[in-house]
Amino acid sequence: MDRREFIKSCSLVAVMGLLFGCRKSELLGDIASQFSVPELKRFEDEVKLAMSRAKKSLDLVRVSAPGPLKIPGASPVNRFGMAIDLDLCDGCGKCILACNLENNVPLVPAEDATRGRFMHWVEMRGNAPLMCAHCGDAPCEKVCPTGAANHTPDGISAMMYKRCTGSRFCGANCPVHARKFNFNDAQSLGLARQFNKEVPLRDKGVMEKCSLCLHRLQNDRLAFKTRNPLSEWRGRGVKTACAEACPKNAIVFGNWLDPESPLARLAKTRILYAPREVAALDPSVVFVRGRR
Amino acid sequence: MFRYLMLAGLALFLPGLFALGYAVLEGPSAWMTDSRTFWGTPIALFVFWIGLAHAGTLLSAIFLALGIKLDRRTALIAELSTLVSLVFAGIFPLMHLGVVENFYMVAPFLDARGNFANVRSPLVWDFCCIVVYALLSLLFFTTHLKARVVPALDRYCKPMAWLLFPLVLWVHTVVSLDFATTFVPEWRGAFFPVYFIVGAILSGLALVNLLICAEGYRVRLMERLQLITSWILCAIWIWDLLFKGYFCTSAFIFAVLLPQFRMVAVIRESRAGRIFFSLSILLGLFLERFYLVSPLAGVPGEPGFGLVDLGLLAFSLGGFMMLFYAARSLLNESMEGAGTYFGEVDGSDMANVEESERSREKTHGLTLSYIQPWSSEEYKTLRLPLACGFSVALLFVLWVCAQLPFVGSPYENVEVILVNVLPLSYPVIAFVAALVLACKAVWVDKAVELGRNSYVALAVALVALAVLAGMFYAGGAASRPDAVIAEAPQYGSEIVDSAHVQFVWNARCAQCHGVDGRFNDKFIREYYPVPQKLDVARIDSLGLDSLVNVVLDGRVNMNPYRGRLTESEARALVVYMRSLAEAP
User: Fold this and answer.
1) Domain with A147 in it
2) What's the confidence (pLDDT) of residue B216?
3) Contact indicator for B95, A18 with CB cutoff of 8 Å
4) What's the pLDDT at A15?
5) Which of A201, B98, B267, B372 is the most buried (most CB within 10 A)?
6) What is the pLDDT of residue A214?
7) A172, B120: Cβ pair inside 8 Å?
8) B34 with B117, same domain?
9) Residue B48: what pLDDT?
10) CA angle centred on B306, ends B303 and B307, rounded to 5°
11) Could you tell me if residue B375 is inside a domain?
12) How far apart are CA A53 and CA B276, in angstroms?
């Protein structure tokens, strides 16, 4: 065999190797997806594990109440957000489990759990729940190459899973690391369970994070618009899953621009704080502590 | 010698290829990613290889543009190493994506297919700059290579070098902006572009010095340049240390301390010593990129360097050696020989060469005199192409600015300001200018005769490009065939009452089509092209059945609703839509 032949056969082997590596192993996927869905107990255990590994420090600075968004196309009447009352919160972690069940947040394999790589949208930091702050000037949205991370007119930093190409640039640029990456195909590994039919399961390779229970808002909007097509929708009466689950009512969801919203009323009498890293980015989700 | 290097490359490449296949199949969990940046080895390798890819253009184009003499063989080796490095620099950002098949969404096609890449993102700038840089480097290399056979091409080398000079700095500035625009504390600093450019130049020099060591000669000019660049990098690292209190000791030892032994004559004069400097610099800079991309690597509790990471490293190293020496032996005839200036063979005295050069200049009366830039030969060649490039870039910028912010345009809500488009401007200028220059050389100046084969290749390439563009424009199915649509509540009744139709319309369709059927402009943001106007004439011409099918099976941007709506509901919706269109 001369040199040319040798190289040719080697490169053929190489290309075949690459093709073999790239093909989707459908057989494996089929077998795995027949596994039963995980039990609720496993989700509870994972939340306990995540809470035991939580970071202890949360550096808060004072912020003023969020105003209307400055991005083009933003609604002048709606900007949804939350406030977490640190005087009431005792760090029980019920909000994490409620969020996981509401948004079908998948489990992670044991190996990821030992690294602390959970998918939880809400995590404990400094004995208080921390989630995406839905910054008005969100750094993650600026660097997303495809525009999959984007603001809705109502002030929610939303994710379009089907547009996400998984460059993880947004995750690198989030100062509080609120964004989670789907490292595993949770569905075929039998780690995902669709508790809530209204929220889709995410595919492997996309980013996800707190959506402020967008589906609840949308349902309310559609019902409201169907009943009174001509009046302005302010999202009154909607609560996120974590706010609903909090036994002490420490999480308050509402509309910053609606004076009747519990959030706006709360902000009048309390002092607002935000994590130092995002305080300058106009966060919609803040902490409250003490009275004015 | 080259054959052994190529075989060694192959031996590294094959297991590396396996690791690459595994990594693509398994996704980002296969390699080491730390919890802060999510990126890990592929991006470290990308920054490393894109740095090496600057060797050719820096050494060849910039030296040529500035009038520093470099022999043809060294220049061609440097350019070839650029091209081969770019192949690997291009592979890693693609394979590191979570959803690899969506990579095309990064290309800024503006509104084609309803895709709007976010022009604010440095990744989009990156994609464009690197594509343009690869194309121009290929063109430059071909021109340089062909110039030996077709001397008329020689006068296009220098203008092309002037086009590439800013581009090479531009590309690395943009790569550094991937890091410098983020909130990661280790990556902050306005000096990042300079820092990246210096790092790239140092690694590129080390690579070329290593490659010409393998050829069996040395270029003292580049060795000295390598030493000086390491001092500049040292200064930047010290700045960084004072600024952030963060320092990569191993990189400092390998890339800055050890190369200082070049000042010892015994080590400098031995070939093993020179190979050692280059390897140590390359190793040091790789480590530096690795720690830069994964600041938490090695911290207890964080994952370490694994087999797949090693495999990816082996893939790029082996692939580089294999491809480089394969191309090197293919192009051997056009590379050898030519006048040697600084590229004297090992051991000969540099001073003698310079002396003879000087005496030759004296005897021939050749003295370098200053030429006004506006009357220089290169400027005259580049005048027209540059004018074209600038005008296209200006048109592009004007178009983006005019299209986006105006009320009533479909993109009025897109947040783009002039600053976001500017990083794309020079690549556009350089690309158009090079294209015009090439066309001018071929068809106006007739500097090079294109053979029949070249025309066929050109035609095939154009047709392929057109087919690709057409396929892209036409698009595929509206939803991925394997997408699992969760079971939705089924509305069982066959008789659909009008209140229910109205509810379904408001719940399902009104987000885009509007409660009154006249589009919800507020909700359709930049991601969807505005849906077709559905007036009565159009609905009637399309017919009830075909519209029912559109509702059930979807069309380009319309989602399929089969499984979520019954057929009778879809039919009732179409009737309801017609009644909306009829309403005044």
Assistant:
1) 58-291
2) 82
3) no
4) 66
5) B98
6) 92
7) no
8) yes
9) 93
10) 165
11) no
12) 45
For B457-481, the pLDDT digits (tens) are 989 999 998 887 777 666 554 444 4
Residue whose structure tokens are 């911290």: B299
Best residue of B38, B412, B413, B509 to probe chain A, by most A CBs closer than 10 Å: B38
For residues A162 and B570, give the distance between their C-alpha atoms in angstroms, rounded to a whole number. 25
**Are B313 and B420 within one domain?**
no
Side chain identity at B202, as an amino acid letter? L
B25, B182, B486: residue with CB nearest A194: B486
Q: What is the pLDDT of residue A254?
A: 94
ipTM here? 0.81
What pLDDT, on the 0 to 100 scale, is given for residue B423?
86
Contacts of B118 in chain A (CB under 8 A): 141-142, 144-147
Question: Domain for residue A42, yes or no?
Answer: no
pLDDT of residue B70: 76
Same domain, B248 and B304: yes
β-bridge pairing A149-151 and A157-159: antiparallel
Note whether residue B91 is domain-resident: yes
Here the tokens at position A259 are: 């004076």
- Chain B: give the shortest CA distance to residue A29, in Å: 12
- At what angle are helices B377-403 and B154-180 packed, to 10 degrees? 40
Question: What is the CA angle A171-A101-A103, rounded to 5?
Answer: 45
- Which is more confidently placed, A24 or B572? B572
**Same structural domain, B161 and B182:** yes
Which chain A residues have a beta carbon less than 8 Å from that of B414? 72
The CATH number of residue B186's host domain is 1.20.1630.10
pLDDT of residue A34: 46
Distance CA A254, CA A290 (A): 20
Considering the domain architecture, whether residues B138 and B198 belong to the same structural domain is answered as yes
Question: What number is the average pLDDT over the span B13-18?
Answer: 92
Contact between B340 and B357 (Cβ < 8 Å): no
> pLDDT tens across B360-409, in order?
666 655 555 666 777 777 788 888 889 999 999 998 888 777 765 555 55
Q: What is the dihedral of CA B498, B501, B505, B507, to 10 degrees?
A: 110
Q: Establish if A286 belongs to a structural domain.
A: yes
Q: Is residue A245 part of a domain?
A: yes
CA-angle at A61, arms to A55 and A63, nearest 5°? 130
Whichever domain contains B553, its CATH number is 1.10.760.10
What sign results for the dihedral spanned by CA atoms B8, B12, B15, B21? negative
The answer to whether B28 contacts A205, with C-beta atoms less than 8 Å apart, is yes
Q: What's the mean pLDDT in B300-306? A: 71
Kindly state whether residue B492 falls inside one of the protein's structural domains. no
Q: State whether B406 and B262 are in the same domain.
A: no
Q: Give domain status of residue A105, yes or no.
A: yes
Tell me which of A24-33, A157-166, B13-22 is least confident: A24-33
Mutate to test the interface with B, among A203, A226, A277, A281 (most CBs of B within 10 A): A226
Q: Phi and psi dihedrals of B396, rounded to 5?
A: -60, -50
The C-alpha atoms of residue A185 and residue A167 are separated, in whole angstroms, by 17
Among the ranges given (A29-33, A151-155, A262-266), the one the predictor scored with the smallest mean pLDDT: A29-33
Domain count, chain A: 1
Chain A contact set for B326 (CB, 8 A): 7
Token output for B62? 């910039």
Residue B21 and residue A20: Cβ atoms within 8 Å? yes
Supply the DSSP symbol for A35.
S
Helix B41-52 × helix B72-95 angle, to 10°: 160
How many domains does the structure of chain B reveal?
Answer: 4
Same domain, B437 and B453: no
Q: Please indicate, yes or no, whether residues B320 and B395 belong to a single structural domain of this protein.
A: no
What pTM did the predictor assign? 0.79
Whichever domain contains A169, its CATH number is: 3.30.70.20
**pLDDT confidence tier of residue B484, bands split at 50, 70 and 90:** very low
Please give the mean pLDDT across all residues of chain B.
Answer: 80
Q: Domain residues for B84?
A: 2-347
